[in-house]
Predict the structure.
Amino acid sequence: MPHQTFTLQEVARYLHMSEAEVERFVENEEIPVETRGERWVFRRRDVDAWASQHILGMKDRPLADYHQQSSRGTRLFLENEAIMSELMQPAWIEAAMPAKTRASVLRAMTALADKTGRVCDARDLLASLEAREELCSTAVPGGLALLHPRHHDPYMFESSFLVLGRTVQEIHYGAPDGLPTHLFFLVCCQDDRLHLHTLARLCLMGLKTTLLERLRQVSTAAEMYDAIISSETEVLAAAKPRA
């Protein structure tokens, strides 16, 4: 059974950060922490929620560095460095989703996830998505949102997966740039490390490649899937050290 709390040393390893970085977040009151005597204690669920939002706000070099560090942490249970083909299928992409509001997006994405056959209880998933969005919008600049459950309990899914919905109508979803959103990934991972790494991978793909533009322009779910695979290949190639 996974640890429910972390020490400073443990949370630094878990987040792929140095202890000094975590200490700075604590001193600036940016990361949730409890004080027990002279010790800091970090609750796993609070840390996961904070880390997800922290990754969504990363830019350029910090994001690339975090992605590289988290890649090392997932090699123990991932067969391949490329993960999009393992987590996605063209059938799990909806190219013309009719949702028009945040609430209807969450319902539609839950229904799309349920079609994968990997969701144990669709009602629990929807409730967890709603709880996550109440904390803070998962929208990022560029018309993209990376939906995910408030907590990542292994029993929620039979295995990890991603689904993608593109709405016909742009939706004001609380993006930092104030622009509407129309591309919605739903990240459903059994393992917290894979969840954080997948968020970093998708953010990097959106930031460093033409993925978002291609996802807007192509017509079919198959073409959208090909764009995702191509974007991931580009990101992984750029991350490799030059000979």
